[in-house]
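Good morning C.,

I know you're traveling, so I'll keep this short. The sequence:
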Amino acid sequence: MKHLKKDSLFKNIAQIIETARNKVRRSVNSTLVLTYWQIGNTIVEDELEGNYRADYGKEILQSLSVKLTEHFGKGFDVTNLRKMKQFYSLFPKQDAVSLELSWTYYRHLLRLDKEVARKWYMQEAAKVKSKDDNPTIGLILCSKKNEVVAKYSILAENKQLFASKYKFYLPSEKQLTKEMTKERNIIESLLDKN
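The tokens, ready to paste straight into the viewer:
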């Protein structure tokens, strides 16, 4: 009886700690995203005031990078400073920035040329992100040397996998392999016909 009570106590405390850690992660993430937006804003505004030539602007970013890295450590190389500038340029209104999304996700969005595509991906990510989400389970599906492989992977702290829809159950690896083989055969037969 005492063992069960200790187990329950442990589970309750573990849940409190996990909840607190998740809150801290979200808080750090949103602060980081906002900070990088503000850095981008500051750099762009400084450039506009100074009307720098392109080569002089490069020198400024290089110098700024060295000073920030000396003072704060990694994360402020010229490439990242350019990404922060681009981040601000693509999202000039601070309230258009979703603090639910990570900096890593925004860096991926920066690669998209079309604003419509960026907005769509942001909306889709927001739909699947929830405060009560369980750890992300990745599904690895691949074809290797004419063999179909299906594996599950828990992504732990890496929450950068987004789903288009959720299922209430997970099929077994065997069921997935069977389904993938079936789909692959259909595709191969269509390709053979063409």
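Safe travels,
E.
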